[in-house]
Write a structure and sequence with these properties.
By secondary structure, the chain is mainly alpha-helical. The chain is built from 3 helices and 2 strands, in the order αββαα.
């Protein structure tokens, strides 16, 4: 699994920033607060980039906080030995 999206979320110590993520990425189903895009739709990608640039800081902090809690709570150490 590509963990770059989760690493980005974990790195945002001020809880700021916006994650734009391909809807085809494995992490997309877990990171619903990210701005999901179809990477082959240039117009949609451009709209999401613009929306990310103008997103209010309080909305950024809310979405990032939710995703940070989720990746903190749902990690391999908390799986109780279950892999599937």
């Amino acid at each position: 699994m590509n963990l770059v999206a989760k690493e980005y979320i974990a790195s945002r110590i001020e809880h700021d920033g916006v994650l734009i993520l391909s809807e085809l990425a494995g992490a997309a189903n877990e990171l619903g607060e990210a701005m999901l895009v179809n990477p082959t739709d240039k117009t949609e990608v451009a709209r999401k980039i613009h929306a990310a640039l103008v997103m209010p800081p309080d909305e950024q902090k809310h979405c990032m906080g939710v995703m940070q809690r989720r990746i903190r709570d749902n990690n391999v150490g908390n799986m109780g030995g279950q892999l599937f």
